[in-house]
Amino acid sequence: MNENELQKPYVIGLDLGGTNAVFGIVDTKGTIKATTAIKTGQYATAGEFVEASCNALQPIIEETGGMEKIKAMGIGAPNGNYYKGTIEQAPNIKWAHDGVVPLAEMFSQKLGGLPTAVTNDANAAAIGEMFYGVARGMKNFIVITLGTGVGSGIVVNGELVYGSDGFAGELGHVIMVRGGEGRLCGCGRKGCLETYCSATGVARTAREMLQTTDRASLLRDVDAGAITSLDVAIAAGKGDAMAREIYEFTGRMLGEACADFATFCSPEAFIFFGGMTKAGDLIMEPIKRAYEESVLPIYRGKAQFLVSGLDGSAAAVLGASALGWEIK
Prior knowledge:
Strand content: 15-25%
Structural class: alpha/beta
Radius of gyration: 20 Å
Number of strands: 13
Order of helices and strands: HEEEHEEEEHEHEEEHHHHEHEH
Distance between the termini: 14 Å
């Protein structure tokens, strides 16, 4: 630990979602010393949101020794651009939906010039794994987030890949099913990985199977329009054949996608992050099998397939906070 970290032993992490904005003050070991939250959607403008955020932060900043103990702030947000410190056309945040918001600069000014950085939530997850999680000591890995969508953070030679414009690494929008039969994605294209392998995609696969077959399944006890990936996981855990087939289909597609991803960065590990990982071997075993069957022989048997080691409820805040330690 250097002298600056001894004098300023904490960073602020902000996990900015469409519903909630969760803040944590975090030390170098990844311990969250204090936390607070506000509702993202309550504010009409970015300025109002930042004002409310800083008001909510003040008590926990004081609780941990004041601003002189804070080194920096990291923000994980939808459509976050690390290069520019902005969030851009964020689909689920009304005050950032239609434009570009210089969020890092706004927070920095409000917090007395505190160094502040922004990246997207999947990149934040990758940085969090590198600092606090199962990727500690690794220099080449891919984090794949399995939630409402499919996100990714790619680390090569110890550096996160941002690309020329800050938006590199959208592996959830690699097209897996080409042609008219591909599922329509929120990005406007068809057949994206996200439409099949996200929690939303798993629920969609379940509905399609229920509608196109008359096979018996515990899932028929659930209103088809309300089925979630959790319902599928519960049914699969009880041995339901259709539910297990849904996970086999989902895992196989993820494994085939990872086999393609290996060709551009030869990662030492794929790390899976998000609620769907709670399905355990139901999702992980098909991923591994499909990967080994599909990957180029020169990569076969080399990559680890790991589940995030970060505490689920705190992982996003930890990921965002790790970005703060990266600021020079």
